[in-house]
Amino acid sequence: MKKIASLYSDKVMDHFKNPHNMGEIKNPSGVGRVGNPVCGDLMELQIKVEKKAGKDVITEAKFQTFGCTAAIATSSILTDLIIGKTVEEAEKVTNSAVVDALEGLPPVKRHCSVLAEEALKKAIEDFRKKC
Amino acid sequence: MKVYLDYSATGPVKKEVLDAMLPYLQNNFGNPSSIHEWGRSARSAIDEARIQVANFLNAEASEIIFTSGGTEADNLAVKGMVLPFIYQGKGKPHLIVSQIEHHAVLNSAKTLEKSGAEVTYIKPNADGIIEIDDVKKAIKENTILVSVMYVNNEIGTINPIREIGKMLEKQNQARSQKIYFHTDAVQAAEYQNMNVDYLHVDLLTISGHKIGAPKGIGCLYVKKGTPVMAMMHGGEHELGKRSGTENVAGIVALGKAVELIQKSDTKIQEIRDYFIDRVLKEIPESELNGSREFRSPNNVNIYFKYVEGESILLNLDLVGIAASSGSACTSVSLKPSHVIMAVCSDAERAHGSIRFTLGYDTTEKEIDYTMENLIKIIAKLRKISPLSPKEYK
Between chains, do A68 and B311 touch, taking CB under 8 Å as contact? Predict the structure, then answer.
């Protein structure tokens, strides 16, 4: 029997089966909602930013996603990648960093990682507006 | 547990079919066009299979053209009927197809459109069925072909082929240019009436691997006097309509497969109804796509609100259940199902719909196992989805 790995990496499947940091934050510092259910992908990222040693640090990140396996896995890994980072550091997380962390995505699914990057940018933008 | 609920995609070769075809792969390997004993043995096997298929359709043996499958038969019917008009420069031919056709018909029509034909694409009603009156209204003076599928492959709806056929016959009595009628019956062969006289069709497509024969074999019924032009040129095989050395084993298999079809079994429909009832009752905000009344006995197509099809499918796959979806995310093109879009123009619905297709071996126990997992999967994905209301969180 052909393993599912021929479709998605083990890492993608791990995050798809047991997504990290799923849900909502009470009083988030920033929210980024991107995509469109009409296109088959809708991602919402919420971040909690707290001052630590004078720096803005992302202490919490949660997501909700409507979409395929790749969309769910990219949302999940994105939260892992940004928790504990300063906002400035998190801003540098690109879609290729997301793809690398997932040990690759099929070419046709790479747009999901772009969506993750956009959600992050929007959440940070929202945080800055509120500051 | 492993549960296969994707029989409309394909199914296994039936034991009796395999037994019938195997000798023609090795011992009786002759080329049917050869004059010697080897060739004659292969030729007589093809002749017999052609009679089996003809009997199944209540047609003449000379009206059966074997092809490489459903796609080729659809291409032969649609292009083979329209292209001669374009080549002969007899004005602009018009054809009518439904919006919910298989891509083999739909993309053939689109190609003809680029080559100078005029095409009307008929929208189905809200139940996913093509209405006779809509076909009638689309008829023009230059209409030469109507192609409407018998059973839709995604949502399982049954179109009124006989009634459309009779309507066209009536129209033809007062016309100088006859309108020919093709139906893609690939998903209908196992469960519906396939008598071509009853259906009033001129052309009809069948595919082998949907009915217990292998992939790579199908046929087109071409009523006597229907001027279909060959798409494949060569040694004038298949009465000059389809050249290429015959797929003898495949043809024998198709003959055997249609002979084995028995339409009296109602068990599959009972299991389908059991499945539909349970889903609609036990999974909130789930809806059946397509008519419940005019529906293939093996098709269950459900829209699950707030979730996306590919992630449902992969979760099902993880617990050993095979289904399919009209979701964009499972296809290379990333376009949502053209069928569900044609019925309701709702992309979210197209993304969130799953097709389960049953086979004769499907048991109630398999449906129970599927339900048990489906309930959990939908709940889990709704918990993740930003679209779901609070009660699912």
Answer: yes
DSSP result, B51-63: HHHHHHHT--GGG
- Delineate the domains of chain B, giving CATH numbers in brackets: 15-260 (3.40.640.10), 264-386 (3.90.1150.10)
| Helices B309-318, B364-384: inter-axial angle, 10-degree rounding | 130
Suggest the residue from B308, B315, B319 to mutate for an interface test with chain A (most A CBs closer than 10 A): B308
Lowest mean per-residue pLDDT among A70-84, A99-113, B293-307: A99-113
Taking CB atoms within 8 Å and a gap of at least 24, the contacts of B274-280 are: B274/B364, B274/B367, B275/B300, B275/B356, B275/B358, B275/B367, B275/B370, B275/B371, B276/B300, B276/B302, B278/B367, B278/B371, B279/B371, B279/B374
B238: left (phi over 0), alpha (psi -120 to 50) or beta: left
B331 pLDDT tier (thresholds 50, 70, 90): low
Q: Which of B257, B220, B214 is nearest to B238 (CA)?
A: B220
Could you report the per-residue pLDDT of B107-152, keeping only the tens digit for each? 999 999 999 999 999 999 999 999 999 999 999 999 999 999 999 9
Would you state the torsion angle of the CA atoms of residues B333, B335, B339, B345, taken in this order, to the nearest 10 degrees? -170
pLDDT digits 0-9 by tens, B38-52: 999 999 999 999 999
In A9-106 the beta strands, taken as DSSP E runs, fall at 30-36, 41-52, 55-66
Interface contact flag, B318 A4, Cβ < 8 Å: yes
pLDDT in tens, B219-264: 999 999 999 999 999 999 999 999 999 999 999 999 999 999 987 6
Burial class (CB within 10 angstroms; exposed 0-12, middle 13-18, buried 19+) of A51: exposed
Q: What is the pLDDT of residue B332?
A: 61
> Are A65 and B329 within 8 A, CB to CB?
no
Per-residue pLDDT tens for B180-207?
999 999 999 999 999 999 999 999 999 9
- Burial-class residue A131 by CB neighbours within 10 Å (0-12, 13-18, 19+): exposed
Residues of B with CB under 8 A from a CB of A: 306-311, 314, 317-318, 327-330, 332, 334, 336, 347-348, 351, 383-387, 393
Contact assessment for residue B150 and residue B161, using Cβ atoms and an 8 Å cutoff: yes
ipTM of the shown complex = 0.92
Give dist(CA B82, CA B257) in Å, integer.
Answer: 31
Q: What is the mean pLDDT of chain B?
A: 96
How far apart are the C-alpha atoms of B369 and B1, rounded to whole Å?
8
Asked if A42's CB is within 8 angstroms of B386's CB, the reply is yes
CATH architecture, domain defined by A9-130: Alpha-Beta Complex (3.90)
Residue in B311, B336, B386 closest to A69 by CB: B311
B286-288 and A30-36 beta bridge pairing: unpaired
Q: Which residues of A are the active-site residues?
A: 39, 112
Nearest beta carbon to residue A72 from set B336, B348, B384 = B384
